[in-house]
Specification:
The complex is a heterodimer of chains A (228) and B (482). Chain A is mostly helical. Chain A has helices at 10-39, 44-48, 105-121, 155-160, 165-174, 193-207; strands at residues 65-70, 75-80, 129-130, 133-134. In chain B, helix 2 (12-43) packs parallel to helix 4, helix 4 (92-115) packs antiparallel against helix 6 (140-163) and helix 8 (194-229) runs parallel beside helix 15. The chains are: A mainly alpha (228), B mainly alpha (482).
């Protein structure tokens, strides 16, 4: 090639590749610092001081959690301890979790730790999705804590013969084989009563994470099939 | 360059490559077999219930996938190093030892997955049974084993690259493989915070399959084009650098499309949408451009010079491998590119995230972007070790390629239809609850799609058997020119 232009020069493209990769990497690292600060888990102090965190601390299990539309953001957000009417959490309304609403930071943290370990040790993600990631063989667990099926008039409380969400969930987790809900059944994974309590705490805390409105319209059935 | 490097006879590096390829092919078979088990369970939920549950079948399906590809990638590097650098790979004895350590570790991990399956909620389980994080379930002890093996491999590559001739392809591989090995460390810690967990988990998964692996494929495609049709290195490597720029330029920040809904801030919507939308661009560019440039200059000249010979016989020295490389260029574009773009915008992804749509994309992308080119490398190795000058297509190679590719396409379409049912029924209409999920799953269209997926899976597996037979019998087949 006699009259070589820069566009067919390998050195030029090598340098371009290096600079582009370097620039993208630096930008990613910078964004990672920002995101890491925003998704660091909160603590009990934050909840007491009514500070909304993207990932609330473990003692969020002491509070009532709902998932409601925020007019300001145009999507559904987790509401902790009551809604101020504008889609912000009040951090006031408590809710009993296995009979108590006064778990200390340490107690709640230990429960969450056990639950997260259990979630990994039982390979939950290889059937279910968490925050939408995982396998697609079983329902998404992102907001499972808020699922009407486990609520006061839900099928699962009736099926397990329990009176609260957490007890129904814990019972099901320990003996899934006894409660066949569909042709597709969850297998028995040797989950103990203690582990089940941890797992339910983990699920409750996960439902309080701000997922930018995922999943949309959770628990609000639309259309004709089941809409009455 | 000694001729034994070209033929593969007498090169220890190439011998080691064939070990890697052989083990990779076995794991490939295991991947398909356990995929079939999981596919049967979608159709007949009682199948092996309580013995080999879906979660376990799927763990082996996806981990065998990742590991066979890593093995075949290591094998590809050991194969091409003597050709590229002109010398025998440095530290090959350690390389061989590491192969056996790696293979043994994989066997132990798989046996534990199969027979122990789950453990109590404790650190011991995380260290010795399963880490329970999709794709990288391997327990922590195995993680450290993988780090040691990867370091040894990168060491071999760097020492050889620095001692011998450092071509553009080798330079790209050196930079790429160190990132590939280093990124694995991002997946080796435990946290109670599921958002932080998934943030770093995606560093491993995404920055592997949508950045470093893609660049790896670019380097292999470049090597293959030079090797199989004698394309000019100058042209090939220029396009390789352009591809590296485009792949890393879009792929690194394209990571943002996994950060829409895991607790991370809203700004990832814009970043993820923009950069991941650019990801398909480079996927087909290099191959098409090189072929175009090659056809315009070299191919035309060669045709003129050797009218008789080249019109009677193709200029392609390895037909089956070249077929798989072409399938790679387009499979990558279609599976990773088009099927990825379908659901990469947050407005769409809000409804498609975590449905069979993702599975459709995952299947065609892993096949199109990686399985194809690695099978192509199997054929290049078979050609080299048997001292074959021109490897022709055989009935078996044509049938196996057609069955595998056709099966994968049908499977992808079936999963896409299943995904639509989920998006419409489970998500848009029913709001993603437990009841909504099962309403979607029991829909007729969903159930039929799962039947078709299973049929397609059987077709792919049949194709794999034919592929294995073809690869094993090539050495004795008299049709190939020696």
């Amino acid at each position: 090639m006699a009259n070589k232009s820069v566009w067919s020069d390998n050195r030029f493209w090598q340098r371009t590749a290096t600079w582009v990769t370097g620039f993208a990497s630096v930008l990613l690292i910078w964004l990672t610092f920002d995101t890491s600060a925003q998704i660091a888990m909160g603590n009990d102090q934050d909840l007491q001081n009514k500070v909304t965190k993207r990932v609330p601390g473990p003692t969020v299990i002491n509070y009532k959690i709902t998932y409601e539309m925020s007019a300001k953001r145009g999507l559904e957000v987790p509401i902790i301890g009551g809604n101020d009417g504008k889609g912000n959490s009040l951090f006031q309304v408590k809710e009993k979790f296995f009979g108590r609403d006064d778990y200390s930071e340490d107690e709640a943290r230990a429960l969450l730790h056990l639950g997260k370990l259990g979630e990994q040790a039982k390979n939950c993600m290889d059937c279910h999705t968490l925050l939408g990631n995982g396998a697609y063989y079983a329902p998404d667990l992102t907001k499972a804590w808020l699922d009407p099926a486990w609520g006061p008039n839900g099928a699962m409380q009736a099926l397990t013969g329990k009176n609260t969400r957490e007890e129904a969930m814990a019972e099901f987790l320990q003996h899934p084989g006894q409660y066949p809900t569909h042709a597709r059944m969850m297998p028995n994974l040797g989950i103990t009563a203690k582990e089940a309590k941890g797992l339910v705490a983990f699920l409750k805390q996960m439902s309080s994470i701000d997922t930018n409105g995922f999943p949309r319209n959770f628990g609000k059935i639309k259309g004709a099939v089941n809409g009455k | 360059m000694a001729s034994n490097h070209l033929t593969g006879i007498g090169s220890e590096s190439k011998q080691l490559a064939t070990w890697y390829f052989t083990f990779a092919a076995i794991l490939f078979g295991a991947q398909l077999l356990f995929g079939l088990v999981a596919a049967i369970q979608y159709v007949m939920p009682g199948f092996l219930y309580g013995i080999l549950d879906f979660s376990i079948a799927r763990i082996i399906h996806i981990n065998a996938l990742v590991v066979w590809m890593v093995f075949a990638m290591f094998g590809s590097v050991y194969w091409l190093l003597p050709d590229e650098t002109g010398i025998e790979t440095v530290g090959i004895k350690i390389g061989k030892l590491l192969f056996w350590i790696f293979a043994l570790a994989i066997v132990i991990v798989v046996l534990v997955f199969l027979f122990i399956q789950v453990g109590p909620a404790s650190d011991t389980t995380i260290w010795f049974i399963t880490e329970g994080r999709e794709y990288i379930e391997a327990p922590r002890w195995a993680d450290w084993g993988i780090v040691v093996v990867a370091l040894g491999f990168v060491g071999n590559l760097f020492l050889t690259g620095m001692k011998g001739k450092q071509t553009g392809i080798v330079t790209v591989l050196m930079a790429d493989m160190i990132a590939f090995a280093g990124l694995y460390l991002a997946g080796m810690f435990f946290t109670d915070n599921i958002s932080v967990d998934q943030y770093w988990w995606w560093w491993v998964i995404h920055l592997w399959v949508e950045a470093t692996w893609e660049v790896f494929v670019g380097a292999i495609a470049a090597y293959g084009l030079i090797k199989m049709i004698g394309a000019h290195r100058q042209v090939v490597e220029m396009w390789l650098w352009i591809e590296v720029a485009m792949l890393f330029g879009s792929g690194i920040l394209g990571l943002g499309h996994h950060y829409f809904w895991i607790g991370t801030p809203e700004y990832w919507w814009e970043i993820g949408a923009l950069f991941s939308a650019l990801e398909p661009l480079p996927l087909v560019a290099m191959f098409v451009h090189v072929l175009y440039d090659w056809g315009k200059t070299q191919g035309a000249e060669m045709a003129k010079e050797h009218t008789d010979e080249y019109q009677a016989k193709s200029v392609i020295t390895n037909k089956p491998a070249f077929t798989w490389f072409v399938l790679n260029a387009f499979g990558n574009f279609l599976g990773a590119g088009v099927w990825g773009f379908f659901h990469t915008l947050p407005q769409v992804n809000l409804y498609t995230h975590g449905t069979q749509f993702t599975a459709a994309h995952g299947h065609l992308a892993f096949f199109g972007a990686y399985a194809t080119i690695l099978v192509g490398m199997f054929y290049i190795a078979v050609q080299g070790t048997n001292g074959i000058k021109v490897l022709k297509s055989t009935k078996l190679s044509i049938w196996s390629t057609s069955l595998i590719t056709g099966g994968m396409l049908v499977m992808t379409v079936a999963l896409t239809i299943a995904g639509y049912v989920q998006v419409l029924v489970s998500r848009a209409q029913m709001g993603a609850t437990w009841a909504g999920y099962f309403d979607g799953q029991s829909g007729v269209w969903f159930a039929q799609a799962m039947d078709w997926r299973l049929i397609a899976g059987v077709v792919v597996f049949t194709g794999f058997i034919l592929l294995a037979i073809d690869l094993l019998t090539t050495g004795k087949n008299p049709v190939h020119k020696r």
